[in-house]
Design a protein that fits this description.
Layout (H helix, E strand, L loop, with lengths): L19 E6 L2 H7 L12 H13 L3 E6 L2 E6 L4 H9 L16 E2 L1 H5 L1
Parallel strand pairs: 1-4
Antiparallel strand pairs: 1-3, 2-3
Helix pairs in contact: 1-2
């Protein structure tokens, strides 16, 4: 049993066994920005450095990333530090009604800034 943040989209069910589904991000750089603490990295990184964080955590098998329809979907290895960080970053969906047909949680630094 997995501790998903939101339901896994039907198109990604083939990846179900990869870990806890943590939603969709606008880019690997956005995901890397959130995951900085997993590598004890501070703020102020270039886009390339943030992408490198994602790549490093993938190699370590802490996350599994699937790029689909222009979004970066992430599964976190249960009990990994990276998974715990992403789980803390997600908005609290407890008791909230999702929009009809909503199947993923979408994160974007650009959207948060506006």
């Amino acid at each position: 049993m997995f501790d998903d943040s939101v339901p896994v989209p039907a198109t990604l069910e083939a990846h179900r066994g990869r870990g806890n589904y943590r939603g969709a991000f606008a880019s690997r750089a956005d995901l890397g920005n959130i995951l900085r603490p997993a590598l004890q990295v501070s703020a102020g990184l270039s886009r390339e450095a943030r992408v490198e964080i994602v790549d490093t955590l993938r190699v370590r098998s802490e996350i599994w990333v699937v790029e689909h329809l222009g979004l970066v979907h992430v599964f976190g290895a249960p009990d990994s530090l990276a998974d715990q960080i992403i789980a803390r970053e997600r908005p609290d969906l407890t008791g909230e009604d999702e929009a009809p047909g909503a199947s993923t949680l979408f994160f974007s630094l650009e959207a948060r800034a506006s």
